Amino acid sequence: MRRAAAAVALFVGLTAVTACGPDDPAPGSAAGPSGGAAAPPATASGTAPASGAASGAAPSKSAAPRPDGTITVAFAGDVHFEGRTQARLSVRAPEPALGPISRTLADADLSVLNLETAITGRGAPEPKTYTFRTSPKALSVLKESGVDVVSMANNHAVDFGADGLTDTLAAKDSSPIPVVGVGHNAKEAYAPYVTTVRGAKVAVVAASQVEDITNQKWRAGANKPGIASALDVPALVSAVQEAKRQAPVVLVYLHWGEEGKACPTGPQTAIAKKLAAAGATAVVGTHAHTMVGSGMLGGTYIGYGFGNFLWYGTSNYANSNETGVTTLTLTADGKVAGESFAPATIDDKGIPQPVTGAAADAALKRRDGLRGCAGLTPPPAAAR
């Protein structure tokens, strides 16, 4: 469409603006979301690169059901293509933009993370301390890194005002992978991406609980573009209930929590209980710039914070370079059958590098220790 083409053209010669909200640290079914353009075909059977593939191309993700009927879903944290990570937009095969840990994302039947930036080369920055933007290429390189679904329900999706939002939505409309949590109106922003993964029907919903200028000014409305807001609890609960009517497996990716705090907040625990009651299989998210506890709330998996992932700069928060990929094994009827965690650490280029051996054991022990203040029980371990 002309609008999408024009938006892409604006990025020729784009200079990155390294600038997070005022609360941020310094440097299958091809049914798309209703109310907007149809999402691209389900990526569960598409291709994703393996970090070690000589040609840079990975085998297709299998669409065949497993004998036990399970699927695997991988989650990672916040991604930026700013500052030291801007160059990741231009890496060449066989190296994926997200580095070696892309293998873990590609190995899962479905993978989801948060892209915390506007997609635009236009617009005036919002009146906040930090603002982020990137080019539409970010969506392509995430796909090449094994990512299947991107959430943009966060406090940086509209960092460059109305013009920036227009371009972001144009990029979404022409994206090679589904983008959830932002839309031309509330119906689209809250709508799930629904796909079939190895014979299992899956829906992905996203929203932001961060109380900031984005949630104040750029919350999607009936005839207003913007992000899906978790501050509108009835709207989000209704969205999850609708997703449950469409798919037994419902995944909710939220932007939530308090920066630098490794324990969940009251608003987090309150919304987690409501979404679990509404039928969510998993409620996960990011924003704290540090990992937060994860585990089971009854039959629902809760991941209160996956931390930074591909990160543009340094952070003053403790343990902010600790990260990894959390993979859930789920049954086709929406039950959690297992969890595994691939730990990583963010290097001086902002890239999540897998850790092994004693370092991995220590990272897993610290991560599991965060569950203590989260009020969650240990999840079942994934079969090896």
Concise structural overview:
The chain is 22% helix and 24% strand.
Tell me what you see in this structure:
- With 384 residues, the protein is an alpha/beta fold.
- It has a single domain (2-373), classed as Purple Acid Phosphatase, chain A, domain 2.
- Helix content is 22%, strand content 24%.
- It has nine helices and 18 strands.
- The chain has helices at 2-9, 102-107, 137-144, 161-173, 186-190, 213-217, 233-246, 266-277, 357-369, and strands at 71-79, 110-115, 118-119, 133-134, 149-151, 179-180, 182-183, 193-197, 200-208, 226-227, 249-255, 282-286, 291-297, 300-306, 308-310, 322-330, 336-346, 352-354.
- Strands 1, 2, 5, 6, 15, 16, 17 and 18 form an eight-stranded mixed sheet that branches. It has a six-stranded mixed sheet with strand order 8-9-11-12-14-13.
- Strand 13 and strand 14 form a beta hairpin.
- It starts with a helix and ends in a 15-residue tail after the last helix.
- 57% of the residues are buried.
- Residues 1-59 have low confidence and may be disordered.
